[in-house]
Amino acid sequence: MKNKTFKLSIVLLCMIFLLMGCNNGPSPEEQMYETLEKVVKVEKDFEEQQEPLVELEKREKELYDEILTLGMKEFDQIVTLSKEALDIVTERETRINNEHESIKASKKEFQKVDSFISEIKEESVKEEADALVSVMNQRYESYEKLYSSYTEAIGYDKKLYEMFQNEELTLEELEQQINLINETYEKVVAANEDFNKLTDQYNNAKVSFYKSAGLEVVFEEKE
């Protein structure tokens, strides 16, 4: 039994060496595909933050609206609601930071494609790959702007709910802070629209590259 196993191992080893001789490993296009799909997996944590963030924003808006309906006679309730809103803002901050870390990890993984592009022989395929990289880098830059505006808005939100807990708060101070918040969220909305647009462009560029490279990839349409 031992000799039989040993002989079988030698045969398998010889076959492996023969196969290695016939195959020099994956092509640059295939290596690029593997990296791009890893990027998708790395951004899974980014995707997982989306729904909770929306729910937190919705709940915070409800608290904010409720606070605005209360008068100074109900100051204790205003303080209670403001503290609850502050907790939500802190949770939003944690979520957006998790999202940011996911994007940074995605960028680190994505940078590996540069070494594969230089090895692509067909010029048209290389051009598709370069276009894909260009769009993705714009997407990363766009996200940094979005993250910066969102964290700035969070800082203003925190200050607002702290102000609500000050019995000496004036209407003028409140209006100034609310205007500041509204202006910042306008930047957030614009940055988010730009990021989403670039995400769509990147996904289209990726499909185009896969087809140009002759990679047999089955694409799933998202609802």
Automatic annotation (TrEMBL):
Domain of life: Bacteria
Signal peptide as annotated in the record: 1-25
Coiled coil stretches, renumbered: 157-191
Keyword set, alphabetical order: Coiled coil, Signal
Keyword Translocase: no
Record bears the keyword Nucleotide-binding: no
Name the record gives this protein: Cell-wall binding lipoprotein
Species name: Bacillus timonensis
